[in-house]
Design brief:
With 73 residues, the protein is an all-alpha fold. It is built from three helices and no strands. One of its GO terms (cellular component) is mitochondrion. Keywords: Membrane, Transmembrane, Transmembrane helix. Pfam families: QCR10 (PF09796).
């Protein structure tokens, strides 16, 4: 029969081991939540002007090209 040998872990090592398991999952969920929030808030003028226009590749798509005479306010 084989014997089981348990090693004691320091609290720091146990914390690092547990955090390594969760970091990738939390990163994926956080990125997805941020992308979803930007998708839902992309119609808001403040988000469009302050965030989405400043994205290097997509900035031209979100610029407001409506002439001032056609804007109601």
């Amino acid at each position: 029969m084989s014997r089981l040998a348990f090693k004691t872990q320091s609290p720091l090592n146990a914390t690092l081991t547990a955090s390594k398991r969760w970091v990738s999952s939390l990163g994926i969920w956080g990125f997805s939540a941020g992308a979803g929030a930007l998708l839902l808030l992309s119609v808001t003028p403040l988000v469009r002007r302050e965030v989405l226009v400043k994205v290097p590749v997509l900035g031209n798509y979100y610029e407001d090209k409506t002439p001032a005479s056609d804007k109601p306010f």
